[in-house]
Design a protein that fits this description.
By secondary structure, this protein is an alpha+beta fold. The chain is built from 21 helices and 15 strands. The N terminus and C terminus are likely disordered.
């Protein structure tokens, strides 16, 4: 460390002189990951306005790195000319800031081996804060503690869901589950991709996930916390299956969205609404996946593996008998009462749901008949998953279990499909002025654009696990950098993380709980030039169309399926890039021995003003 300080002594003097000018402040024109970087991986910042061709990385008042900014490149999505500051060769753990003369300082960031540990835990714990039917105790929720809302033990049967065994307005019990987004309803379709992603993180990285402790009520049991959290939703999903025929209700909902009130204050009647093919297939896929995981915990989860598999097969069989029962809310309201005006999650093409469910059931049971009916490899190119397009999830499962199912599927075709997707994504990074994957087309910027970025990173990490090719790992990291600050808005889009994160999210709990800070660990939707909330955004350029205001449900809402790929990506990166066999506390101590924590005057002053 002393050698580095001497090497840059003259530069440090120059920087301190510049620091006395008006430019020595946190600059919105420097965009970088506000959490930090792994020592061995790429580290870049984007500089919007250039006051100098040089940049410097500071540790306190010491300059530890200097470099030359790249030539300007244009990013049409924000209509900006920007330069790249690349400091990838700086590998020493510590706390830093980047300085550009004539521009100012970046937000602080860290370099260390476990740089995303707290983010991974925070994004996963975001689901605890979304739990229905449970009081959140201060010992786990801190200042976001709240009374229980929506016990859902006496939910009404909507007329669209009525059967002889469950007539209109009869009652059923359907507790637990997660609130879907900023609202208080629970939707099977969106729960499908969400729960899958959390369970996939465990399946792909079981050792790491088993050591990840969140401080939730179940943390002292013998299950990994990530499975405890997923089970809160899985057990709700199980209640949504009609025991008479195996079909699965589409959603559990109010007739209309609640106002901005706390969960325990929202007491209007709730209904389960009609069964649908999409809901039944998403349910079948998740239950098949949960079944094979539960087999590893016979003492902790007695009988659950069999129950989940039985439920999965019954839901699959119902979908086979009812292959085109689509949820169209307009049509439902025209035929049944009362009218429902909450999230639709309608889908009139369920070939991808059939393919995903077939993949999960095949891997769990090894029965070829599922693939005969719907093989995910029979479709075209692999696409980035979303709640309405889930075929690629089946490919992810095939890729993870490829050695177990070799000879049963065309593994060459599987590899080709996934690597073709990853190659198209990674090629975008090198041509992007921001050096990110998101932006391969303008379609990347729309409702939930941040989830698109996270799902792109997840696809790239699946490809990396197939190939060990660094290009896919670096590309995945670039999109995480985007979400955490290397974007045209300069936001870390995860609440409670980074130096500048959203404060006024479209989230009823955060709006009504009386706490200044929003519930932490939640990924907001992000830039969306369609502006469906009809608010006046500061810009309608694709990468700038965002408002940090409660009313902006089109850009500033949160959603469980958006957090899910963020959880997967951060866990995957930590598992893949953190040292093996080194306890977290041991590592933290070793980092502090290299560079003591710095409290730089300009950063301290900035923090005090926030």
């Amino acid at each position: 460390m002393k050698t580095i300080q001497k090497q840059f002594l003259l530069v440090s003097v120059f920087v301190m002189i510049m620091s006395s000018s008006a430019s020595s402040q946190i600059s919105p024109d420097i965009r970088l990951n506000q959490i930090g970087f792994y020592p061995s991986m790429k580290k870049i910042a984007i500089v919007r306005s250039v006051g100098s061709s040089q940049f410097f990385v500071l540790c306190g008042t010491d300059t530890v790195y200097s470099g030359t900014l790249s030539s300007l490149r244009h990013w049409s999505y924000s209509n900006e000319d920007v330069s790249v500051a690349d400091f990838s060769s700086l590998k020493i753990p510590g706390s830093y800031a980047l300085f550009v003369p004539g521009v100012g300082y970046s937000y602080p960031f860290k370099i260390n081996e476990r740089v995303n540990l707290e983010l991974a835990k925070g994004a996963l714990k975001g689901y605890y804060f979304q739990r229905a039917s449970l009081p959140l105790d201060a010992s786990f929720a801190g200042k976001w503690a709240r009374p229980a809302g929506h016990p859902d033990t006496a939910v009404l049967i909507h007329s669209s869901a009525a059967t002889p065994g469950r007539p209109v307005n009869s009652k059923m019990s359907s507790p637990r589950g997660w609130y879907d987004a900023g609202d208080y309803n629970k939707y099977i379709v969106n729960s499908g991709i969400t729960t899958y992603s959390l369970l996939a993180a465990y399946e792909h990285f079981p050792k790491y996930c088993s050591e990840l402790v969140l401080s939730i009520p179940e943390s002292n049991n013998k299950l990994p916390d990530i499975l405890d959290e997923a089970l809160w939703n899985v057990r709700w999903m199980l209640t949504m299956q009609d025991p008479a025929d195996g079909g699965v209700y589409h959603k559990l909902t109010n007739t209309n969205f609640d106002g901005m009130i706390m969960p325990h204050q929202a007491t209007t009647p709730r209904y389960v609404v009609m069964k649908s093919t999409a809901a039944s297939l998403d349910f079948a896929a998740v239950m098949a996946q949960m079944s094979r995981i539960a087999r590893n915990f016979p003492a902790e989860l007695p009988g659950l593996a069999d129950s989940c598999l039985h439920a999965a097969v019954r839901a699959w069989n119902w979908a086979r008998l009812h292959p085109k029962v689509y949820y169209n809310q307009t049509q439902v309201n025209a035929k049944y009462d009362p009218d429902i005006h909450t999230g639709e999650y309608g889908d009139s093409n369920v070939s991808d749901e059939f393919a995903w469910a077939a993949a999960e059931l095949f891997v769990t049971t090894k029965c070829d008949s599922f693939l005969t009916i719907a093989n995910p490899l029979s479709g075209g190119s692999a696409l980035i998953p979303s709640w309405s397009n889930v075929r690629t999830l089946g490919l992810y499962t095939f890729a993870h279990y490829r050695n177990d199912i070799a000879g049963k599927i065309d593994t060459n075709k599987l590899r080709s499909r996934l690597l073709s997707l990853a190659a198209s994504l990674s090629s975008t990074q090198s041509s992007s002025a921001y050096q990110v994957v998101i932006g391969s087309s303008a379609k990347d910027f729309g409702w939930g654009s941040n989830a698109i970025a996270a799902n792109q990173a997840m696809a790239l990490l699946v490809a990396y696990q197939l190939t060990s090719e660094p290009v896919y790992l670096n590309a995945a990291l670039s999109n995480l950098d985007y979400l955490l600050g290397r974007n045209a808005l300069g936001y870390c889009f995860v609440t409670g993380f980074g130096s500048r994160s959203p404060m006024f999210i479209h989230h009823r709990i955060s709006a009504a709980d009386g706490v200044t800070e929003p519930v932490p660990g939640l990924l907001v939707g992000g830039p969306n030039p369609k502006c469906e909330d009809r608010l006046q955004y500061h810009s309608t350029l694709p990468a700038l169309a965002y408002l940090d205001t409660v009313a902006s449900y089109a850009s500033n809402e949160i959603c469980i399926n958006w957090n899910a790929p963020l959880v997967y990506v951060t866990i995957a990166l930590e598992a893949l890039l953190s040292p093996n066999g080194l306890p977290v506390e041991t590592l933290r101590n070793s980092i502090n021995e290299v560079i003591p924590s710095q409290d730089e005057p300009f950063l301290k002053q900035h923090r005090q003003t926030q």
